[in-house]
Amino acid sequence: MSVKHALSRGLELGRSLVQLGLFKPAGRVAAKLRGERLRVSRPTRTVQPQTFLPGRYRFFRLSLSGLAAQLQSGAFRRVAGGGAPRNRAVFLAFGVGLGLIEQQLEEDRTSAALCQEIQTVFRKKKFQTPLKPFTSGYKLEDYVIGKQIGKGCNAAVYEAAAPSGAPVENGKYSLVELNQKETDDDYKKAGPLRFPATPSFPLAIKMMWNIGADSSSDAILRSMSMELVPACPQALTKEQGEIALDGHFGLVPKRLSAHPNVITVYRAFTAEVPLLPGAQEEYPDVLPARLNPQGLGSNRTMFLVIKNYPCTLRQYLEVCVPNRMQASLMLLQLLEGVDHLCKQGIAHRDLKSDNVLLEFDRAGCPRLVITDFGCCLAEDLGLKLPFDSRWVNRGGNTCLMAPEVATAVPGPGVMIDYSKADVWAVGAIAYELFSQPNPFYSSQGLEGRTYQEEQLPPLPAAVPDAVQLVMKLLLRRNTRKRPSARVAANMLHISLWGKRVLAGLTGARMNELTDWLLCQSAVVLLKGRGSGGSSVEAELQRCFLANIDLEDLHTALSFLMYGHEQWKSLP
Ligand SMILES: Nc1ncnc2c1ncn2[C@@H]1O[C@H](COP(=O)(O)OP(=O)(O)OP(=O)(O)O)[C@@H](O)[C@H]1O
Predict the structure, then answer these.
(1) What residues are paired with 207 via a beta bridge?
(2) pLDDT digits (tens, 9 = 90+) for 487-532
(3) Which of 312, 359, 398 best tests ligand 1's pocket when mutated (most atoms within 8 Å of CB)?
(4) How far apart are the first and last CA of the chain?
(5) Whose CA is nearest to atom 30 of ligand 1?
(6) Are the CB atoms for 441 and 352 separated by under 8 Å?
């Protein structure tokens, strides 16, 4: 940049400071400057220095304030009138600074536009649940129910299928055709593992226990409404949907859009509680009096139809030791799932390895989905919960409760912010993924309320550096220093597939990053055409590109660059 140009940029800044009211020139200078504007990013728009500079130009922002102070003390007047050399130097330096900012902004604009284009390409193809369109399945009689496959505090889960001879309405398919082929193939590829998924029962029916609400559909749907958060648009019949979606009582949950790492509820309906296998022995107390005279349950309840998965994450980890790559991909999937929830203003609040279901892709890589939304927060207020009394429910899982939730003290005006609570739980679950004991289960001794970051157990050296860093950052007590799920996911994406960008990080230029993004896009598009299209890896890469945002990407890069230092310098 020439000296002349630098000075003219400095003068332009002076004009903008006049506009901002930071400098009040008089006489000849005032006349020269009056009414003129600083144009930085777009020729048609006035940009104010304090607002147009994003976080990473903090240095220049500081220079701006310093210079503003100089100008207020009258230095500018002297420069404009011929000027002392010292002041010329200040303006020159500042002009150069501005020039650099402009250059950076120009690069950013190009990269932001590129990110936007990439996002558009990868968002066009919306994730489809593997359910073919069908119109039946709203009654218990539409299904054949097999054996019990699980039980929690609120429900029993059974394998299920629609009878193969089920009526095919209007040329549409019956439930039994739910991606049967994929299920069979995936099952075969699970290698030596024989988890008890029965391909002939591609579905699971979760029968909620109704002990509070009466037997009307209205009462049931309202009291169990959170279970409907991951329900697909066709899950309820029109009439049921109207009950559940009527906002009259303010209990209407938000609905999540489909995502590869979040369960989809295909159907939800109410029906009379049947006597299913094991009911009398395993949950007699929650049965209705009709089935057990001592039972406390209501006569009707809600049923959810979901895909039948071979096992939960906890069951899988009890018998398998995933390799580094598989464990990293599982962590990434949990982060992608949580990012999807956050973006839609939903906090799960009960993340644990029992609430993550697992199947295998064609290559035998575990594919995870977050399930059981019974405790989630899905209010219009977003991820903030007014905590004005100790009776307010903070969430399901006390062991994996983030410090900001566990330490909240109820009182007037107190709000709990859940925006980074789920991602904290993912940080704790990551220990399990890398075959370590979860430090927050009571036998390990740490508590979310009181632990110090230095007390977190070290991870084996075999755990990749970037993963170790992500885990440490996720378990930070201070939410401002904890990355969001998106940023943490970006860190893993870059470390898994962007080694080249990572290697040049010290001098990382924007065009290296954009080159890499373009290559990634091309690779993923090509994979999508080939046989690798449905692999976990390809799904994750698509997810990354569909959510790409320049600021988040930069934050991830700076965490990767400086994260270790910041972590070490913690008191
Ligand atoms: N779609 C499914 N496929 C296979 N097994 C499942 C499925 N859904 C649930 N299960 C099994 O049933 C168990 C109980 O399910 P779930 O966690 O949804 O019930 P819950 O009563 O709401 O649980 P919680 O006690 O956490 O509130 C799970 O831990 C899992 O073992």
Answers:
(1) 156, 303
(2) 999 999 999 988 777 766 555 556 677 888 888 888 888 776 655 5
(3) 312
(4) 43
(5) 150
(6) no
Give CA–CA dist 500/561, Å, rounded: 14
Asked if 11 contacts 73 with a C-beta cutoff of 8 angstroms, the reply is no
| CA–CA gap between residue 343 and residue 339 (Å, rounded) | 6
**For residue range 375-414, what is the model confidence (pLDDT) as tens digits?**
999 987 789 999 999 899 998 888 999 999 999 999 999 9
Q: What domains, with CATH codes, occur in the chain?
A: 130-164+199-308 (3.30.200.20), 333-569 (1.10.510.10)
Instruction: Read off the pTM.
Output: 0.78
Dist CA 212 CA 266 (whole Å) = 25
Nearest ligand 1 atom to alpha carbon 308: 3
Say which amino acid occupies 371. Answer: T
In this structure, the dihedral spanned by the alpha carbons of residues 437, 230, 492 and 394, taken in order and rounded to 10 degrees, is: -50
Q: Looking at the chain, how many residues does it have?
A: 571
Residues with CB under 6 A from ligand 1: 149-155, 157, 204, 206, 306-309, 312, 354-355, 357, 371-372, 374
- The CA 92 to ligand 1 mean position distance, Å, reads 66
DSSP for 283-349, written as a single string: -GGGSBTTT-TT--B-SEEEEEEEEPPSEEHHHHHHH----HHHHHHHHHHHHHHHHHHHHTT-B--
Half-sphere exposure of 564 (CA within 13 A, CB side): 6
Name every residue whose Cβ is closer than 8 Å to that of residue 22 and which is 6 or more positions away in sequence: 68, 71, 72
Q: Exposed, middle or buried, 257 (CB in 10 Å: 0-12/13-18/19+)? A: middle
Element (H, E) at 367: strand 366-370
Tokens standing for 112? 């932001």
